[in-house]
Amino acid sequence: MGLGLLTRNMKSFDLKRVGFVFVVLMLGTSGVLFGQAKPGDGTVSQRLEVMRDKLERVRRSLNSAISVLKEENKDDKNKKDDEKKLETPLGRLVALDKDVSRVQSDVNNLRGKVDRGEKYERSDVDSLEQLVNEVQTRADTAQLETASARANPTSTLGQPREKKKKKKFLGIFGGGGSDEYEELLGSVQVGRDRELFVVATREVRKRNFDVGRLLFQTIITTYPDSPYLPMSKLAVGDSFYLEGSTSSLIQAVASYQDWLTFFPTHPLSCRVIMKIAESEMRQVGLPDRDATRAKRAETKLKVLLQQSQCRESFISGEASTDSIIF
Prior knowledge:
Blueprint: H1 2-9, H2 15-29, H3 44-73, H4 89-116, H5 122-145, E1 164-165, E2 178-179, H6 182-186, H7 192-205, H8 209-222, H9 229-243, H10 246-262, H11 269-281, H12 292-306, H13 308-316
Antiparallel strand pairs: 1-2
Helix pairs in contact: 2-12, 3-4, 3-5, 3-10, 4-5, 7-8, 8-9, 9-10, 10-11, 11-12
């Protein structure tokens, strides 16, 4: 059935696109005897790597906001104990950072067991995955709700930023040097979302994926009404796609799918569906392995072909297989 659909709709496609879709549909059809996808995505090691990456980004984002609040409070005697008060923005973020740190420790401990071949419960992986998603949601909410406390009424847009000595923020793997983005990430200003987007795009193009994603994520969690929000969410998925490791491709699929949930009628939705299919295809193993990835790609391509606007954009060449933003 998949090949019949391909024959009817793809006659005018160029050979590259026909070849890609043909391989996906053939691999997907050959995998009908394999089981459905298991809870979670990827091997245990890959899932733990995804969790580690998420928690590291959450902590970096929290640390930048905490740093800005501490700087603003240092000369106010009434706020000297805010760090210990959960009802204050600073206290809330500090407590949340500690919670994330504890989950991070649990992930690292389980990852150590897996690496050493020690016994562990599969349910522990599922529980940790759920816990990581919960603290990530809490962190995003806290960043949004404490944005007003980090607001700077005096805009520094277009002015050179002071470069501070690195501590453990973007220079998390070592001290020294300067961290020009700490203030950019932590404080909130009118027009700052555009600056964040420009700098983030530049960093991803320089293959500084972690830095770029952190900047894009700041737009998402701090500027919910920004006109750059759709492109920022899409850019996060694109950065994972360009990075290309297995754990990155798993997160690319999740990011693209999340974007489609929020923007299902966006003009770029067809290209995003194509990127999901490609991300799945890049994870397909040997022919005798589980064909789950190929079947997922097949499903997305069938969706693409069944939607008239997507079919037309694919035929015209607009649904390019290149990255969407970069």
